[in-house]
From TrEMBL:
Its main location: membrane. Pfam families: BPD_transp_2 (PF02653). It is a multi-pass membrane protein. It comes from Natrinema pallidum. The chain crosses the membrane at residues 68-89, 95-114, 126-147, 153-175, 187-206, 226-253, 274-293, 313-337, 349-365. GO terms for cellular component: plasma membrane. This is Branched-chain amino acid ABC transporter permease. It comes from the Archaea. GO terms for molecular function: branched-chain amino acid transmembrane transporter activity.
């Protein structure tokens, strides 16, 4: 038995080493030459956009991060594309199997989830498997208020109470766990979401709340529904980017890199990790409310199952952890691949392909696809000057 385990360990070590060497060769011989060629082609565009980017850097750069001309152009085009998707998505959608606006709306919700997870786990290094419990708490609170209290309640009331519920659940998870480190913290969050899942399945009144809605908010109009999801997502991305660039964000990164040094500097890491949970819980609650509006019903498999937490992590890995905008891009890539490009395949086949992409990113681009692209765009400016 021991010899078998040792043999498996040797095989795994050999395979990992070979994958690492293949990844290094691929980067040196294929990706880097392609990158240098693209940089030469994009340098003129960077020079044209440079003055606009410099104006942004002087005014808003200290709050949201400085950008090169190309980076500014990519952000501007992306935001414009998201805001005008209601006009171009219906035309492009049939080429991708239809339903593109629905996919973009769903991607907006998952972008909120992934960014919320990232501000807590990506920045502090404390990996949580329990974030689906936060969105589930918000979703169930909204549904219960509408079904059992008053179906005419304003979204501002139901939404506010639901976000508060997500915050309370987040604090209930955070307070007993933040003094733990390493796998113990992750295990506690994993158990927490399993407990929440069992709670929803143990009581028939929580097992599923189908077929409710509010005409002024929960709409089945694809275009209106998309903007209900996309605009809050953009605002949350803006707010989380601001917080990540603030002193709080820098301290969270310092906790990830060297927590004892943060303590030696006279700061309380537990307090700041608690703040990271607060920053994460509020947008998770908003995302849970939006998911209720998107689906029109609540059930454990949609809101609470631990697979949702793992999918948030996968999206953040694809985009690039501890970057806010990386998980946002990862969410749109993940959902477009899942529901548009691979829509003709069964769910197991689609997720097999998607998890192979996650594995590819972990081996060949550990900083994430979008984060790597972002840094390469920023490097163009230095070579063009």
């Amino acid at each position: 038995m021991i010899s078998t385990i040792l043999l498996l360990g040797t095989v795994c070590s050999t395979v990992t080493g070979r994958l690492g060497r293949v990844a290094g060769t691929l980067r040196r011989q294929v990706l880097w030459p392609i990158g240098r060629t693209l940089e030469r082609l994009l340098a003129p565009i960077d020079r044209v956009l440079g003055p606009v980017a410099d104006g942004y850097n002087r005014s808003l750069g200290p709050y949201f991060g400085e950008m090169s001309g190309l980076q500014f152009g990519v952000i501007a085009v992306s935001v414009a594309g998201l805001l005008t998707a209601g006009t171009w998505a219906p035309m492009v959608g049939p080429l991708l199997g239809g339903g593109l606006l629905r996919t973009l709306a769903l991607a907006s919700i998952w972008a909120i989830f992934a960014m919320s997870w990232d501000i807590q786990s990506g920045y502090t290094g404390y990996i949580s498997f329990g974030h689906s419990a936060l969105s589930g708490a918000a979703g169930y609170t909204t549904a219960l208020l509408i079904v059992h209290v008053d179906p005419t309640l304003s979204i501002w009331i139901t939404g506010s109470v639901s976000v508060l519920a997500a915050l309370v659940v987040g604090l209930l998870i955070a307070l007993p766990t933040l003094r733990l480190e390493g796998p113990y913290f992750s295990l506690i969050t994993f158990v927490a979401v399993l407990l929440f899942y069992r709670l929803t399945t143990a009581f028939s009144s929580l097992g599923g709340i189908p077929g409710f809605g509010q005409p002024d908010v929960f709409t089945w109009d694809p275009m209106v529904r998309y903007y209900y999801m996309a605009i809050p997502m953009l605002l949350i991305a803006l707010a989380l980017t601001f917080m990540a660039r603030s002193n709080l964000g820098m301290i969270l990164i310092a906790i990830r890199e060297n927590e004892p040094a943060v303590s030696a500097a006279g700061l309380n890491p537990t307090k700041f990790k608690l703040w990271s949970f607060v920053l994460s819980s509020v947008p998770m609650g908003i995302g849970g409310v939006l998911l209720v509006g998107f689906t029109g019903n609540v059930d454990p498999s949609t809101f609470v199952v631990v697979d949702n937490s793992i999918e948030m992590i996968a999206i953040a890995v694809i985009g690039g952890m501890s970057s806010i905008l990386g998980p946002l891009g990862g969410a749109f890539l993940f959902e477009v691949l899942n529901h548009q490009v691979l829509h003709g395949y069964s769910t197991p086949v689609r997720y097999l392909f998607l998890w192979l992409i996650v594995l590819f990113v972990l081996v060949f681009a550990r900083d994430g696809l979008f984060r790597a692209i972002w840094h390469r765009l920023g490097a163009v400016r230095g070579e063009s000057e």
